[in-house]
Amino acid sequence: MSKLPHLRLVQNAEPISYTSTNTGGGGSFKTPARNPTTHAPELKNGFAAARDQAAEIRVRERGSGLDVLTHEPGGLVLTFESDKGEELNLKGLEKVRDGIELRSVLPRDGVETAQVFVADGKLEHFFKLVETYATRTVLTISADESMRATLEGLVDKKRKVSVSIKEPSDGKLPASITCPVSESDRIITALGERATVSKQVRKNTPLVASIARVRLALVRDFWAEKEEFPDEAEERWWEVWLHALRPQAESVVARFRSLTSALGIRTTTRYVRFPERVVLLAYGSAAQFSRSLELLSLMAELRKARELAGPYLELPARDQAQFAAAMLKNVVAAGNEAPSVCILDRGVHRGHPLLEQALAESDAQSVDESWGAHDHDQEQHGTGMAGIALFGCLTEVLGTNEVIRLRHRLESVKILPPPPSENAPEVYGAVTQQGVSLAMMRRPDRNRAICMAVTASATPQGLPSSWSGAVDEICAGVLDETPKLMFISAGNVRAELYSPEYEYHRWNTTCAGIEDPAQSWNAITVGAFTNKVTIQDPTYAGYEPIAEAGDLCPTSRTSLAWPEDHHPGWPIKPDIVCEGGNYGAHGGSRSSVEDLSLLTTMLHPSGRLFDTTRDTSPATALAARMAAQLWSHYPKLRPETVRALLVHSAQWTRAMTGRFGLENKANVQRCLRCYGYGVPDLDRAVYSLKNCATLIHEGALQPFKFDSEKKKPATNEMHLHALPWPREELEKLGEVPVTMRVTLSYFVEPSPGSVGWGANHRYASHGLRFDVIRPLESVAEFKQRISKTQWEDEKVRPKSQSETRNWVVGDKGRTHGSVHSDWWEGSAAELAACGSIAIYPVTGWWRERAHLGRLLQKAQYSLVVTLLTENVEADLYTPIKNVTSVRVETLTETTIS
């Protein structure tokens, strides 16, 4: 599907006088329409064809001698497919006690596919389900109480008629009758007029009708990556996810290895165990995998094997230099007008061959010229950050023959002295502001993502410090009236990781609070998660990764560790998480394994050019890199908007949602305070699609005024956004699920001075909130619900429509900090009526301390709204782009060269 630029809403905000009104579940499964007369035979043919193909493969296995390796009980894996834009009824596809197991659910161009293991002899289960669907129907009936005897008399075992009678309700007797399709007309006639048939559906419809096709699974059906499936004959390393409970892991791996060995497929000796999965690497081709039915029956997923950092570190200095030189031939540097990642650290060695052309000598500065501009310490933290900020993990680009076209540059400001000297904690804020000022004075016109992975110990309850207050001032542009985008690491567990008391995840969420200044309201605080779970280095034989794929990096800190009486409204931290690597454990030992780390740049006296890095530092560099790349596409966006788009693009992994569950708002909050809004995705941040339209509005409102009548400060205005909604398209889609996500981002001005921020001394200058019109609410009712100025009688509250939508975060949970994001899923028809959004103010020190002269200030904000449907045939984008009632500007991508 073609990638499209986002849409900008211009002159879209209607200012409305505002006074606070001061009042202190998911949808049901949609079954596709089917014709049972044709659908049932088609599915039966699919099951039969899969059975026959499996038999043919087993004949070939016997001919090649593979059958001697077959273990009982065996089985096969079927692939079930939905229609485009529809879902499978997954609950009905698993019956573990009968040897039917759901292995994986993967999207394929809008089609949901499920890989289901079916034990030998159990395929008959699906034939029976389909046969029952073809031949039996269920009548839902409402009858008078006097009909009870008649209903009971309809039971006929010979004719296979059964009756279920429920408790009477409202004078009616609800019942259901299950019978052969051929008997339904006779039964309806026998009931007469004293009973009403409200519904007649084929038995097993929810499951059977959701299945569009079924077939024997192919190797490509297990591919879980976004990129195209590799050529069938190409030999390569695969990350193989086997289905196995923990106690079965060893025996399942043994079976897998015996089969792969016979097929000429190499496997690693080490593997990772998770509750229901075993992960190991295998080298071979897809064609080799396809030769064994049992081999496929052991699998759940296939993923791309990630290249590891270890082999590059083992290379001699001369070979490392050759790799760097070969890579440089493919690098196209960005021009001086490109955005940058500005690294605040101990300096950067710009003499590194991979960094030199992206970091001009004049852009490498220091707050104290006597310190020099490069990092003197052996760790070379700043140089390592620079490599990640420019290229990402170097294992992704070293050895490639593809052109590496950079879209951003680097800047470096040394804010820490050479070791062993240190700045006193009370001046960290001033030094940070000075460092940013140096970069701004050098290139005031450049878009820059400021990256600082330098933190101090955590503050009590995550309250603001002088350092975090200084950071908030930098972002809000208090000193120079230029807002800025800043990324700060959440901080790391250090020596505690190696102590006997450390327990993964529990310790991170109960003892390891976010470090100073990452509690900042305006900066994007970056935590670390990991997808790195493969260890190949024989030095670490017996070690297993501490975190499973998709979960929290073992050193990453969270705001869950802040006390339960944490001040309401304080920010959710981290905001997002990026790759930070993993750690290995063996018995009571833990280690920073290189295979579980990120590869980056360093300039060692020996000539070595590469080193590994981990934790929240590289995660922060990756996030800042993403922001710079986003700005290279849309150079006119405000910093608040780039921040909003990154948060807006973030999603939780399965490991994250599985850790806390999202069944209630309390657990959603726990998930947010551990992982923020999840892992950002650059494609989602940069591009819209036809079935995924993103709208951006950059506005400003004046939150407060002086009420001359009441002679005191008061709230002033709200903004009403009538969105250019694709109403006709949504109504045409009807019951198709559509997700609406809204993100509001703004910077607050922190209260001046380091005076502590309790209940009577507000930290934030102001706050903003959003609300979305409800499906059955008129615009007039919506205005009245939000603002008291819209009431006809200020003493009489108008009636309002109740909220029927299940927002994931919820209107109470999304009020923290200064970036608010929430989403809900409903039918397209329901969403068609939700095209108005209100942005309104809540109080802050601008109003409460009017004597400071900020009462009449305007507050900038960025609003991002996305409509998404998995139906790839739907076009939500074009109707919005072509609307005439509101001027819509297409954001122009700019190529940096």
From TrEMBL:
Residue stretches making up the Peptidase S8/S53 domain: 338-678
InterPro entries attached to this UniProt entry: Peptidase_S8/S53_dom, Peptidase_S8/S53_dom_sf, Y4bN_pept_dom
Any single biological process term in GO: proteolysis
One Pfam match: Peptidase_S8
GO MF assignments: serine-type endopeptidase activity
Gene3D superfamilies from the UniProt entry: Peptidase S8/S53 domain (3.40.50.200)
Start and end residues of each stretch annotated as Disordered: 15-41
Protein name per Swiss-Prot or TrEMBL: Peptidase S8/S53 domain-containing protein
Organism: Gemmata obscuriglobus
